[in-house]
Amino acid sequence: MKGLVTRSTGLWYDVKSEAGEIISCRLKGKFRQEINQVTNPIATGDRVEFILEENKKNGIITSIEPRTNYIIRKSSRKEHFDHIIASNLDQALLIATFKMPRTSLGFIDRFLVVATSFEIPVIIVFNKSDLLKERDLNKFNDIAAYYSKIGYPCHLISALNNDLEAIKQLLNQKTTLLFGHSGTGKSTLLNTLFGEEIQHTKGLTSQKKGSHTTTFAQMFEWSENSYLVDIPGIKEFGITHIEPAEIGLYFPDFKPFIGQCKFYNCSHKHEPNCAIQAAIKEGKISDWRYKSYLSMINE
Q: Which of 42, 73, 244, 294 has the fewest CB atoms within 10 Å distance of its CB?
């Protein structure tokens, strides 16, 4: 039988069969051993083959179909291992906030690099517009204009308000990952879109940081052929599968200047006649994007 993994708890997986039935499945032991260096050999969004156990209620996953793409990061719990966040995505909504909590531009840029490396389109959604003052709105306009110019559309919303028509249109007929820090409002946005509480929400801690309310990655069918993947909030996002020399290739604002440096293997850090550094001085590349680049290659 074939099915779609809609929820991953680490040991058990909810698999939606072609008949629409949700089957609780585990992974065949030998198959688990063949997939190493990842904490979760099966991820939400995977398409798998499975057989029913003797009780006809549970299943055993026997194989996984090739993924079209996936989002991966360094495991936060197991050294030298990676963690697959979700797979087979059409796009991602990066949920960010200017305050309560503040999403750093470096965090945003790290996710953009990983998603771009897998050719996954990203829309940046700045949530909690109801908390912003005039100076915050001016900052949003500047940041949104820059990101939009390099291919990442931006939206400013309040997930508490049911004024999400632009977002709803983006989700139609697509599988979309909701990504962001804890406390940025992913689950609140999900509940507003569905018109009911399908994910529990919780306020910020006394340190104005988000609380983990989503425990496992889970896929929800918002409308026919339209799926939303909600995941636990991400605290840190370590890049694992890209070599330092390749990171600049996934900065769209660097692309016009790649290959114009004096040295073919220019790191864009200290070499003379570097086209990237010249573009920064001329205001063609933002300072914050360059700082994000340096942080990634120095890591």
A: 244
| Cis amide bond preceding 121, omega within 30 | no
- The pair of three-digit structure tokens given for residue 180, joined into one six-digit string: 């962001």
> Letter for the amino acid at 111?
F
Give pLDDT tens digits for 105-150: 999 999 999 999 999 999 999 999 999 999 999 999 999 999 999 9
Q: Which residues contact 78 (CB under 8 A, 6 or more apart)?
A: 39
DSSP state of 255: G
Strand pairing class (22-27; 58-64): parallel
Instruction: Give the C-alpha separation, 150 to 225, whole Å.
Output: 29
| All structural domains of the chain | 2-66 (2.40.50.140), 71-230 (3.40.50.300), 244-298 (1.10.40.50)
Half-sphere exposure of 204 (CA within 13 A, CB side): 12
Q: How far apart are CA 241 and CA 73, in angstroms?
A: 8
Q: Under a CB-based contact definition with an 8 Å cutoff, are residues 231 and 179 in contact?
A: yes
**276 phi/psi in degrees, rounded to 5:** -70, -45
Element (H, E) at 171: helix 165-171
CB contact burial 204-224 (16+ within 10 A = b; e otherwise): eeeeeebeebbeebbbbebee
Taking only Cα atoms into account, the Rg of the chain, rounded to an integer number of angstroms, comes to 21
The answer to whether the CB of 22 falls within 8 A of the CB of 13 is no
Cross-strand pairs, 73: 83
Which tokens belong to 174?
């697509």
In Å, how far are 9, 63, 137, 202, 257 from 79, measured between CA atoms? 20, 26, 40, 30, 36
